[in-house]
Structures are given as structure tokens and as C-alpha cells.
Design goal:
The chain is of the alpha/beta class. The protein is built from 9 helices and 12 strands. The longest helix is centred in the last third of the chain and has 23 residues, at 244-266. It binds zinc ion. Zinc ion is lined by residues 110, 112, 176-177, 195, 206.
Amino acid sequence: MARMLIASLAAMLLTTIASPGWSQAPTQPIAPGGAPGQPSRPQIETMKVEGTENVYIFRNGNHQAMFIVTPEGVIATDPVAYGRPTGGQQYIDEIKKVTQAPIRYLIYSHHHFDHIAGGKAFKDAGATIVAHKRAKERLEVLKDPHTPLPDETIDTDRTITLGGTALELSYVGLNHSDSTLVMRLPREKIVFIVDLLPVGRMPGRGMIDFYQLEAEESIKKVLGMDWDRLIPGHPDSGGRLGTRQDAQEQLTLLQEASAEMKKLGQEGKCWDTAEKEFKLPKYATWPGYDQGLPFVARRYCGLWGRGT
Ligand SMILES: [Zn+2]
């Protein structure tokens, strides 16, 4: 009995810690396991976005996706099940806890497997998979066994309207990938943008196939859209949602990184010397700075020291 009481108290405490995080400033790391002495979050978690009636975030580890529940069905995004064979079904199970309405759509944010592997369970449940056309072209070549091909593709934009909710899908050019869709809920003024705009942290591994100059133009287009809150694809800023200021700061960071490496690259210092000398002290206190800096340096060395 006492043990049960302790267990339920512990569960309550965890819920209290985890619940309000989406709209508040980061205080705790979200990664499962966490740092010693800090509370860890469950591997899987589903949260309703504060102030909305039907917008949810499904999180699996350090990946997350948005889903929208309408009377006529569910619009889901990104299965986030790379290396997690049961992740797609677990996502569906979480949706079923909220609604019995059918899952009508699964939208891929871009072609990277860490976000879109695991769609088979959605396909089996009858969902139509939608992605940018370039995502389909890539997936057709790669034939990843865990990533079903899209059923429908988008070139520039499309609005999905279901059960009274509109979800705008826009391609704003090359940026984090060549297949990224910006998803915007005009009524809720929420955008779901994966990997292009890390919230309050240094970019890192996501720079590997980043389009440096084009991304700046994409972010300007995103800033030209009407939205207040940004759901990122990784909750590693403590789970808080992004703001327009976060997006602007990320643009500034990229512009400053580019300018810094431009000097080094044009002095003939790429790769080794430039990568060693490249620093962005203004961001040294940002989460992910030490790990992310080499990825940022290498990508911009590619541009200013190589031309690509
Ligand atoms: Zn990505």
C-alpha cells in the first residue's frame, strides 16, 4: 500500500514537472534519462497545446510532431520513429487516447529519416501520406524499408481542410533540406517547422545538408507569415514553443556565422585552420554551442572555402 502511494506520488510529481513545459521557459533538459539529479521525462508523451482546442504535440524521446484532431478525422505529422520499430504504432495509440476519429493524413515535414521513418502503421490505418515532391523523389531512390512513399506530393503549396480546420503547407525554398514544408494553422497562428529553426539553441548536426544562403531567404519568408508560436521538431529547449523572436535570432546567428566564416574562407583558411579559429562568442552560452559549433563551421567552410 505504502509502495503504491509512493509510486502514485512520484507519477504525480513527474506529470507536474512535464505538463506545463510547452509554453514556458526551459528549466530542465528533456532528454530521457536527463542529467544526474534532474528529473527525466517519459520516453513518450502527448500534450495539448495551450490555448488551442485541438492541436497536440506527440513526443518520442527528443523528437516531436504536431497532430490536429477534428470531428472528421486527424491530421498527423512526422512519425518520428527512426530506430524505434514500434514508434509509429505507439504514436497512433496516443492519438486513439484523444479521439476515435480516423487518421486521415500523415504529413512528412521533410525527408530526413529521424523524423519520417515509421509511417507504415499510419498507412495501415488508412492515412494518406503527403510530402513535398522532392521528398518523394529521394525516398524512391533510397527505398528505406521503414519509410513508406508519399501518396500525394506538393510542389509549392496546398491547404488541407478537414472538419473545420485549415492546415496550410508551404514550400519556402531550399533551407534545412530541399523538401521542407512549413505547416501553418492560420486560425491558431501556430507553425510547425522541423529543424530549420531550433528554438533558443545552437544549430548542430542539422547543418550537414543545410543550404546556407537559401535558408536565410526561407526564414525571411517564414517571418513574413502570420504566426505567434512555433512548434519545433525537437523539444530540446526544455519543450517550450518558439516565438518570432527566436526565429529572428536564428536568422541573425546564421548571418553572423556566415560573415565570420566568409573572412576565414576568403583568407584561404578552410578547412582545418578556419574550423579551429571559427568562434561565435555571442552564442557561447546557448545550449548546444560546443557540440554545434563544429557543424556550423564545416558547413560554412563548404560555402566560403569551397563554393558549395
Ligand atoms: Zn532534418
